[in-house]
Amino acid sequence: MSRDTSLADFGTSEGDAEAESEGEESPVEAESRTEIGEQENAEVESGVEAESEREPRSDSIGEAESSADSDADIEPALATYDWTPGGVACECCGESVERRWRDEDEMVCANCKKW
């Protein structure tokens, strides 16, 4: 729709209501669908251009294996905070607390955490 669309264009006319009841598309819906289709086509075309500008990919087995090896070297993320409703011992002082934070390799209470 254009920027100067009136509120009447958003309403449902009798012809639109009949078309909807018969399973047909209203003129407003058809125009909207056409605009969306043109937008998607433009995005696809720009993506094709961008892809053609890239360097060619090499899908050799050696690269795939080295990628898998480098993934094995990645350490998983660790939680920085822990909340246990019943309480759990601080790994530094041993006091039972509900909230603990990561400090180096331990989960410690607020008093033991080096802020």
From TrEMBL:
Positions of region (Disordered): 1-80
Biased segments, Acidic residues type: 15-28, 37-50
The organism's place on the tree of life at top rank: Archaea
Ranges of biased composition (kind: Basic and acidic residues): 51-60
Residue ranges of domain DUF7573 in the record: 77-115
Protein name: DUF7573 domain-containing protein
The species this protein was found in: Haladaptatus pallidirubidus
